[in-house]
Amino acid sequence: MAANNRKAIYYPTQDTAVIPYYDNAYKLLEAGLATKYSIDTATMTILQGHNSSIPKIIEKAHADRQLAQESTTLKREELAKGKKDIMRVFVKIVNDPAFEEADAEALGIRVHKIPTDYSTVKPIVTDVTILPDQIIFDWVKGALDGVIIESSFDNATWERIGTDMKSPFEDTRKNKSADKPENRYYRFRYLKNDTAVGLYCDVIKVNCDVV
Same structural domain for residues 95 and 19? Predict the structure, then answer.
């Protein structure tokens, strides 16, 4: 049993995947796994709160993304706290003498990793936050080193505007015209050992009023 804790505990990186992952894990813990692994009532109450609030916080963040940064900040804090609390439970489970691998698979903390295909890997941008002074892009790093970011004003002529090794990427460029908004297009491509690999992500169109 001691070798079980050497396996990686999977936790999703995309907001939309967190909701069913967390709900499934919480319901299984509530149905009996919490008793089996001696997860106390106080911890279950904390997880219940996260399970209830994460969908609401994510929905609010997505609805308000063009209005203010507050909801996005709340979302990040809640996701970080939710991950911290449930990961503590999962670590306790995999180190418990009663641990069974089938429970880990049911909880969703085991995944079969597929080797990265550097010819087809494609960046995942999980969130775009439009603020008065910048545009923020949350992206998934995965097993890669970073991303290059290119931008265009016509979706035809592209300019490399940055390299990012840790999400999020912030575009703080001002509009070409100070008195009107403009359309911008973005695309990301992964980096491995300082070399661009794989495919560009789908083009992201942003109507911005960055002054």
Answer: yes
Decide if 121 contacts 93 (C-beta within 8 A). no
69 and 151 both lie in a single domain:
no
Confirm if 9 and 91 have CB atoms less than 8 A apart.
yes
The number of beta carbons lying within 10 Å of the beta carbon of residue 112 is 6
Task: Kindly report, residue by residue over 145-169, the tens digit of the pLDDT.
Answer: 999 999 999 999 999 999 999 999 9
Residues 136, 94 share a domain: no
Residue type, 171: D
Q: Read off the pLDDT band of 42 (50, 70, 90).
A: very high
Q: How far apart are CA 210 and CA 178, in angstroms?
A: 8
Q: Which residue type sits at 154?
A: D
Establish if 147 belongs to a structural domain: yes
> Minimal CA–CA distance to 4: which of 131, 91, 74, 72?
91
Tell me if 98 sits within 8 A of 36, measured CB to CB.
Answer: yes
End-to-end CA distance of the chain: 58
How many structural domains comprise the chain?
A: 2
